[in-house]
Amino acid sequence: QVQLVESGGGLVQAGDSLRLSCAASRRTFSDRAMGWFRQAPGKEREFVAAINWSGRNTYYIDSVKGRFTISRDSAKNTMYLQMNSLKPEDTAVYYCSVPMLNVWGQGTQVTVSS
């Protein structure tokens, strides 16, 4: 069973930074686009950022542009989400995914206090 395991979440104050990691096991996804999604309490899961297979192309929702950076290290089979200038509205469970294969991690909680 292919697994994606997120880590790096936590409780921080507004303006702080966190780096989320998504480690893949049992196979490599170096030939696939990957992404980060999040789900806040009482809300639908939403797209946050994506990165193509080579890492050269990245995509973000408007609310995180300039604050979040998605990257990947194929040698480590790991994807990252660097989150700076965090805001309370960024509070959510963050999931990594290989959307084309419908593979998802278990999520990591990010809580930003004001």
Secondary structure: elements and pairs:
Layout: E1 3-7, E2 10-13, E3 18-25, E4 34-39, E5 46-51, E6 58-60, E7 68-73, E8 78-83, E9 92-98, E10 103-104, E11 108-113
Parallel strand pairs: 2-11
Antiparallel strand pairs: 1-3, 3-8, 4-5, 4-9, 5-6, 7-8, 9-10, 9-11
How helix-rich are the residues, as a percent range? under 10%
Tell me the number of strands. Answer: 11
- Enumerate the spans where pLDDT stays under 50 for 5 or more consecutive residues: none
Which structural class best describes the helix and strand composition? mainly beta
What summary fits the major beta sheet? Answer: 7 strands, mixed
From the alpha-carbon coordinates, what is the Rg to the nearest angstrom?
Answer: 13 Å
Tell me what portion of residues adopts beta-strand conformation.
Answer: over 45%
Arithmetic mean of pLDDT: 94
What count of helical segments does DSSP give?
0
Shape: globular
